[in-house]
Amino acid sequence: MSIMMQMALKWRKRVMILFDEWKTSTAGTYWAALIGVFLVAFVHQYLDRLLAPSSPLYQINLRSHRESKDGENSDDSQHRSSTLVRVLTTGVFFIRISLAYVSMLNAMTFNGGVFLAIVLGFTTGYIVFHTDLDEL
């Protein structure tokens, strides 16, 4: 007995996304699912921007390091600020990587609309959140 997984994109409105409970059966539920999948990829790009070296989180950390070298802050307050930034960036990274894996699992539905929503979400997020990084 040979069992093969189908590897071609399907273009149907009936699809199961991630969970057995998240099934689409009408055009309305399908489009709502596509919007949700798009937003997951879009938010991933926003979180990726927060982890960039020019992000506000890293700028706060750099500023506290510079002030501590100038003697304006004590080592204790600088350490607390640095620890807080590390905890925040670790949390952002955890959420970002989780969204990336959710997007990968969504793509494994092999639904053409879901695949396009993922790609458009990542692309739109990149255009909105990453195009100004070279200007900083």
TrEMBL record:
InterPro entries associated with the record: Cop_transporter
Transmembrane annotation, as ranges: 28-47, 83-102, 109-129
Membrane topology: Multi-pass membrane protein
GO molecular function: copper ion transmembrane transporter activity
Keywords: Copper, Copper transport, Ion transport, Membrane, Transmembrane, Transmembrane helix, Transport
GO cellular component: plasma membrane
Tree of life domain: Eukaryota
Subcellular location: Membrane
Family, as annotated: Belongs to the copper transporter (Ctr) (TC 1.A.56) family. SLC31A subfamily.
PANTHER family, alphabetized: COPPER TRANSPORT PROTEIN CTR1, SOLUTE CARRIER FAMILY 31 COPPER TRANSPORTERS
Listed name of the protein: Copper transport protein
Organism: Ceratopteris richardii (Triangle waterfern)
